[in-house]
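User: Structure with adenosine-5'-triphosphate, tokens only please.
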Amino acid sequence: MALIEARSLGKSFGTHRAVEDLSFTVRPGSVTGFLGPNGSGKSTTMRLMLGLDRGEGVTTYDGLTFGELDHPMRHVGTLLEAKPFHPTRSARNHLRMLAAPNHIPDRRVDEVVEMVGLTGVAGGKPGKFSLGMGQRLGIAAALLGDPGTLILDEPSNGLDPQGITWLRNLLRSLAAEGRSVFVSSHLLQEMGVLADQLVVIGRGRMLANGPVRDFVSHSSLGSVTLRTPDAALLRPALDAMGATTTPDGDDLVVRGVTAEQVGDAAQAVGARIHQLTTRQATLEEAFLEATGLSEEFRGTQGEPS
Ligand SMILES: Nc1ncnc2c1ncn2[C@@H]1O[C@H](COP(=O)(O)OP(=O)(O)OP(=O)(O)O)[C@@H](O)[C@H]1O
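Assistant:
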């Protein structure tokens, strides 16, 4: 049940700066989603957190670096993109080989095989597994040591819709037990239901870090739709507040201000409101908006694409 603290992580590949000064925490009891466009540095960041890549900064698990943990597998379960499965060893034996040096009993191997739904095929060779089955085996390996912390890079890759729902329930229940879960995914809609916290990066730099609901509610793509017979009175007041107002049939769609601000402005100018609804941006919209800013940033820096 470790508090993960990543401080000032950085990494260059030659002249290319892949990760720049990333600091964040992942708290026990939470699922923290790690989002960023392709090539933005998510895998590199995870590798840095686990001491697999040399770079700048430090990551601690309840104050200890990964290298300082006595039995890392019992503290931190990991799933990274490259899955080193032995081509001829059975899935169950693959897990036993990982378990033995960590003093994890065979009983636990059977438990995790069942948890990931591979009981019927655990005698088979991972080389013959589908992408989704291979992914389940990787998740089983991450869970072997019953770790308090999970770092999972794209665990939903290759899973079908049932598999994605299963994974969501699994990760949420592991977090509910007090574990810290740090997970990257391209599936934004899924991340919106899975994660309660987000770390969003673009071009290796931090774009947003905090609760999912704050990330979404701060997006300017949310809107307030209202119906008023006094649009001529209200629109100038909203414009003066920096809002954008767009007529939509009998309605007025307002962006850039909250519903409360619209209500207050209406009262101040004596405009009647007959209907008012709010629409929050989706996580996808908020993500595209945030990472669009990062593309803009790239343009101003003159970096290669
Ligand atoms: N071993 C390497 N040598 C050189 N460049 C690398 C290496 N690994 C990653 N990079 C570069 O670092 C940047 C970040 O890559 P990384 O794989 O961490 O991104 P990512 O966010 O995980 O991408 P994806 O979502 O596509 O998996 C990319 O520009 C990538 O080309």
